[in-house]
Amino acid sequence: MLQNALGEQRYGASLTPTPDVCPPALPQRQVLLANPRGFCAGVQRAIEAVERALEHDGAPVYVRRAIVHNRTVVERLERLGAVFVQEIDEIPSGAVAILSAHGSARSVVRAAQARALRMIDAVCPLVTKVHAEIEGWYRAGRHVLLIGHTGHPEVVGTLGQLPTGAVSVVCTPEDLEALDLAPNMALAYAVQTTFSQRDAAEMIAAIKARFRDVAAPRSSDICYATSNRQDAISAIAAQCDLVLVAGDTMSSNARRLVEVASAAGCPDARLISGGADLPRGAVLRAKRIGLTAAASTPDSVVAEICEALRELDCTITETPGAIERVRFRPVSLEPLGLRSPEGSIKDRLARLRTDIDTTLEAAIGHARGRDRRLADAMRYATIGGGKRFRALLVTAVSDLVGGAYDQALRVGAAIECVHAQSLVHDDLPCMDDDDRRRGRPTLHRKFDEATAVLAGDALLALAFEILAEEATHPDPAVRAQLVLSMARSIGQDGLAGGQMMDLYPSARPRPDDIFECESRKTGALIRYAVVAGSLLGQCSAEDRNRLIAFADNLGLVFQIRDDMLDSIGDPAVVGKAVGKDARAGRNSATTLLGLEGAAVQSSLLESACHQALDGFGPKASPLRELARFAVNRMH
Length: 635
Ligand code: GRG
Prior knowledge:
By secondary structure, the protein is α/β, with parallel strands linked by helices. The protein has four domains: 2-40 and 224-318, 4-hydroxy-3-methylbut-2-enyl diphosphate reductase, catalytic domain (Cobalt-precorrin-4 Transmethylase, domain 1, 3-Layer(aba) Sandwich), CATH 3.40.1010.20; 41-124, 3-Layer(aba) Sandwich (Rossmann fold); 126-215, Cobalt-precorrin-4 Transmethylase, domain 1 (3-Layer(aba) Sandwich); 347-632, Farnesyl Diphosphate Synthase (Orthogonal Bundle), CATH 1.10.600.10. Helices cover 53% and strands 10% of the residues. The protein is built from 25 helices and 15 strands. It has helices at 41-57, 71-80, 106-114, 125-139, 153-159, 173-178, 197-210, 224-237, 252-263, 280-285, 299-311, 345-364, 372-382, 389-400, 405-426, 443-446, 449-468, 476-490, 495-503, 511-536, 541-568, 571-574, 580-584, 589-612, 621-632, and strands at 29-33, 61-64, 82-85, 96-99, 118-121, 143-147, 167-170, 186-191, 213-215, 242-246, 269-272, 288-293, 314-318, 436-437, 440-441. A five-stranded parallel beta sheet has the order 11-10-12-1-13, sandwiched between helices. A four-stranded parallel beta sheet has the order 3-2-4-5, sandwiched between helices. Helix 12 (345-364) runs antiparallel to helix 13, helix 13 packs across helix 17 (449-468) and helix 15 (405-426) runs antiparallel to helix 17. Bound molecules: geranylgeranyl diphosphate (GRG). The site of geranylgeranyl diphosphate has 20 residues, from helix 15, helix 19, helix 20 and helix 21. Geranylgeranyl diphosphate binds next to helix 15, helix 19, helix 20 and helix 21.
């Protein structure tokens, strides 16, 4: 039997009863202490993050919501100088803001960035694993079923990683039944990390019974600490006539421990917050009491409860259990959110795609009283599709010249609105008359022509709205330049002018006419992405000129590749019909130069892109990668 730091006796070990003289001397009640219990590695790490931030930055540091669901922990940190708030807008701008261990929606991170808070995210790495998982499934086109408790902060944070509607929360088999999803729909499930193992197993079985195509997490989402604590209390609960779980009512994993103890056969399982909360009557009636603590309950609370139990003539015995060796790297105190996604172009694109989707989703909104069909069409045109080449470009340039990622993201979303509008209108019967775009029916085929025209109009308006809003840049002069430059990129000298040249070419077009048309139709928005990125970072005129030279070559090479894909592309990969230029007798870089000539021209233009970036050194490598992608892309 184990001896622990709480100083308990072993059952009956030190007593020698003398039946003739004394009343029965054996203690009346035995307390079995479950093992493991109390703090998990994620909770420990989050609390330490607040302590370290206080040491590093001095008080006050602000914490959004309870860092972990335990009042004793929160009160102790408050005494050290932490200020707990409900929402980001309660935090003075520029202050240190710590986000809780349960994980936060991306909108919270963006709100913190908009207030220029120095943000530290204490999210548990095991919750981050679930976030990454659902993002992967979303990108793979799967709808996610999140097994969890609606409204719990972890569930709210997980839902907030993806656009609205991408995830459905299910807690009970009835929730599952109420879902209006086709049995052959591509799905995946994820589980709240503090959910009951038994209930999760039931839900997973029900999901698999109802749906045919269900992707599962590679390993259980329920965290090791939740599972170990549930197993430990389950192992002793049936021998106990009372189980006490030390924890707060707001703690989900604490409440699950009470349920698990009851389900394992204990007739009376209760949650208590500390020694003062001890149910004396129930303790005095019990012979054997089980005691455990939630993953957010400090040892001091367990020690206090043990003390109160000893006063009621209890001996306390540690039970053997799993030894936990999990440790996480400390939370980085370097403020988050000012950096663009890192890694390969593929990784950055993946993260950017989700970030752009959530930004667009928030911008299109779900306000009451708005026309739902229009909003649905706007979402259809913008969300979940496209390479996001222009959005990646603006974030890469902004990053290169010191702009903020969240601002670049907004500009990227505005550009994607304009780009989507141009594609929607380009596909209309009065223009290119296309049936497929981005691998699915064009907007006017899915909805109708009038809706396509109006969705395009509304997207254009939305783009300007996003650019003009303060969150896009604190300096009104920068915002005005962003708006002006966008207006010029899409008007007579930009997309609209280029499209006119395409629809009404001169009878004998000169090569210059073709390149002029392409540079307006495609190059203008690509150039805008680069100019906007340079505006966000407010770089020198010299750097801006170098970036514009890069953009002009990139825009042209992007369009030449588009022309080449029209000849050599696979419609299934390109996502739209090919061979249209030849069928319509339309002039393009390939009809002008031939396929080989277009390839040679592309490679010259790519060299010019690299040359323009020479002055920026290795920091420009993401832009160099984008140029390589533009030349070699197959879609
Ligand atoms: C904006 C006022 C205003 C008018 C628009 C219809 C129109 C006028 C212009 C059409 C411009 C157009 C369709 C140009 C083609 C640009 C191009 C190469 C599109 C394909 O871009 P990708 O490959 O597409 O980046 P994804 O789907 O990946 O986003």
